[in-house]
Specification:
Layout (H helix, E strand, L loop, with lengths): L2 H17 L7 H21 L3 H13 L1 H13 L14 H13 L4 H18 L8 H16 L3 H14 L7 H5 L1 H4 L6 H8 L8 H17 L7 H15 L7 H12 L4 H8 L1 H4 L10 H17 L3 H19 L9 H14 L3 H14 L7 H5 L1 H4 L2 H5 L9 H8 L14
Length: 425
C-alpha cells in the first residue's frame, strides 16, 4: 500500500482533532479520540518500517503554514518512530500476531491497520453526543476523511475494502457498521467515477443528488391541492426555492437539466411529468447568461464555499432545504392546513436520509456555512440537521422524523396549527 495517501489520511484526522475549536469539539473528547488512535497509528508505523513518519514529513510540505508544523509533530507526539535508538512504545507481539492473521487471510497487514484506524475514528465521532461534537464539525470531519480516502489509488482501495470486513469482528456490536464502511462511503467506485459524478467543483454532493432534493420539494408543491395550501403561498414557496438554484454555477445548468430527466425516468407517471417540467418552468433551458447581481452572488458563494471546504452544489442544496423549511413552517393557518407542513418535511427528510454519507455529511456542513445569510433565522438554519435527524442518518441509523414542522414551530415560539375554514376562489 502506498504510504503517501495513507499519511494524508492520518494528517486529515489529527488536524481535525487539533484545529476544531472547543465549541465544535469538546476538548476532553478530542483527547480521548486521539488516545484511541494511538494503537492503530503505531501499528501502521511499525508495519511500514518507519516509512509512515517520512511520509508525514512529505505531507507537511504539501499542506504548508501552521498545519505543516502540526503535521511534523505527529511522529513525536504519537511516538511513531521505529528504531532510531528509541524503544518502540507499543508491544510488538500483538502487532506481529495481527500481521500473521492478516497474511493468513490474504489481507494486506498495512490495509488492516488502516481499516482499524479509520473505523475507530468514525465510530468515536459518530457515536458522540451533539453537545460533544457539533453537527457541522462532525459533517466536516466525515467529509474531509472521505475525500482523503478517495485519493487512494485503485489497488490500495481494493486492499482497504477487503480489510474492513477482516477487522470488523474486533468491533463487537459495531462490527456491522465497520463492514458497510466501503459501501456507505463510496469506496467501491473508482476515483474517476467519483470525479465524473461530482461534476464541477470540489465536493461530495452531486448535481444528480441536488436534483433529487429539489424535486422532493417541487413535487410536493405540485401535488398539494389549493384546498390544503393556498395558491399564493404555493407560488411564493415555489419562487423562493427556484431562486435557490439561481446560484448554481452556469456551466452546471446542463448537468442539472439532464439530472431531472434521468430522475423522471425512475418515477411514476404523475411525478415524472412534474419533474420533466422543472427545467423549462425555471428557465434552465434558456440559461445562457447570468445577471450581474447573480454573478456577484455566485462569486460570493463560491468564495465562501472554498473557505469552508464544501462545494457550491452543497450550498445550493442547503438553500433549497432551508427556504422550503422556513417558509412552510411560518405560513399562517389561513394559508396551510394542519399537517400539510409536516407531510412536506417528511417527504424532504426521506430524500435527505437516502443521500450517501459523504454527500449527507457535506450537506450538514453546508447548513452551518449558509446560516449567516439568513441573519435572524441563522439559529433555525443550524437546527435543520437536528430537526431532520440527519446526524442519525449519517451514523447509519434509520431515523423516524416525527412531525418536524410542529417541533420547529414550538421551538420558535409559534402556536400549533388549527383547522380553520378557507374560502377558495
Amino acid at each position: 500500500m502506498t504510504l503517501a495517501p495513507v499519511a494524508r489520511l492520518v494528517a486529515t484526522m489529527v488536524l481535525f482533532l487539533e484545529q476544531a475549536d472547543e465549541a465544535q469539539l469538546d476538548l476532553d473528547y478530542a483527547v480521548k479520540v486521539a488516545e484511541y488512535l494511538c494503537a492503530p497509528l503505531r501499528a501502521l508505523s511499525y508495519l511500514s518500517g518507519g516509512a509512515l513518519a517520512a511520509a508525514l514529513d512529505s505531507v507537511a510540505e504539501e499542506v504548508g503554514g501552521a498545519a505543516a508544523a502540526l503535521v511534523r509533530t505527529l511522529p513525536v507526539g504519537f511516538a511513531l518512530y521505529v528504531g532510531a535508538g528509541a524503544a518502540f512504545p507499543e508491544p510488538v507481539e500483538p502487532i506481529e500476531a495481527d500481521r500473521a492473521r492478516a497474511l493468513a487471510a490474504e489481507i494486506d497487514p498495512l490495509a488492516a491497520a488502516l481499516a482499524r484506524l479509520v473505523a475507530t475514528y468514525l465510530l468515536l465521532l459518530q457515536g458522540a453526543a451533539e453537545e460533544v461534537v457539533a453537527p457541522a464539525a462532525l459533517a466536516r470531519a466525515v467529509w474531509c476523511l472521505t475525500e482523503a480516502l478517495w485519493r487512494l489509488d485503485r489497488a490500495s482501495l481494493d486492499r482497504l475494502i477487503a480489510a474492513f470486513a477482516f477487522v470488523a469482528p474486533e468491533f463487537d456490536a459495531e462490527a456491522w457498521q465497520v463492514t458497510v464502511i466501503p459501501t456507505r462511503y463510496g469506496l467501491r467506485a473508482t476515483g474517476a467515477d467519483q470525479r465524473r459524478d461530482r461534476g464541477a467543483g470540489r465536493g461530495a454532493l452531486t448535481v444528480a443528488e441536488l436534483a433529487r432534493v429539489y424535486a422532493a420539494a417541487y413535487v410536493f408543491l405540485e401535488q398539494t391541492g389549493e384546498e390544503r395550501l393556498d395558491l399564493d403561498a404555493n407560488v411564493t414557496l415555489g419562487e423562493h426555492i427556484g431562486h435557490a438554484i439561481d446560484h448554481l454555477e452556469l456551466e452546471q445548468a446542463p448537468a442539472l437539466i439532464a439530472a431531472f430527466a434521468t430522475l423522471a425516468d425512475t418515477l411514476c407517471v404523475e411525478e415524472a411529468a412534474i419533474v420533466r417540467g422543472i427545467a423549462e418552468s425555471h428557465g434552465l433551458t434558456d440559461r445562457h447568461s447570468v445577471s450581474a447581481r447573480l454573478t456577484a452572488g455566485i462569486a460570493h458563494q463560491r468564495a465562501t464555499c472554498d473557505l469552508a471546504g464544501i462545494s457550491p452544489i452543497a450550498a445550493v442544496a442547503a438553500h433549497v432545504v432551508t427556504v422550503f423549511t422556513l417558509l412552510l413552517e411560518r405560513f399562517g393557518d389561513e394559508e396551510i392546513e394542519p399537517g400539510v407542513d409536516d407531510e412536506g418535511m417528511r417527504r424532504l427528510a426521506a430524500t435527505l436520509h437516502a443521500l450517501p454519507p459523504p454527500s449527507l455529511a457535506e450537506l450538514i456542513a453546508a447548513f452551518d456555512v449558509i446560516a449567516p445569510d439568513f441573519t435572524s433565522d441563522a439559529d433555525a438554519v443550524r437546527a435543520i440537521p437536528r430537526d431532520f435527524k440527519l446526524l442519525e442518518a449519517l451514523a447509519g441509523a434509520v431515523p423516524v422524523v416525527e412531525a418536524p414542522a410542529t417541533l420547529r414551530r414550538a421551538r420558535a415560539g409559534l402556536p400549533p396549527r388549527v383547522s380553520v375554514p378557507r374560502l377558495i376562489g
